[in-house]
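Because discrete structure vocabularies remain unfamiliar, we turn briefly to a single example record, giving the amino acid sequence and backbone structure tokens:
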Amino acid sequence: MPKKKHIPALTNAAGDTLRSPCPVACFLDICGDRWTLLVIRDLILGRSRFKDFSASPEGIPTNILSDRLARLLRHGIAEQVPAKDGSLHQAYQLTKKGYALKPLLKAMRDWGLKWEPDTSIGMMKPS
């Protein structure tokens, strides 16, 4: 019986193991859970503080919020900046890479408005 050839695991720039080199799979590995795109939505809407994200109507648990923010930082989608109010707390903002997701979220919003009758524009106004 021939021996199987060892194929090294694929990793991305953040050091995460990839399922495959497929760009859709890679995107889902970063943003494909039920919370990450909602945090990105809040960043697009101008929210920047941990307390702002945890106050969103979806009610993200704080331990999960901490994990998702760390993931966005690790992948260069968001960055920490000093809070605008001058406090010692850190704030978050999207990087150029993060803002590149805005058309995707807009398309998802538009799809939801068209096909899901109980959705509303309240959380994410058209741009």
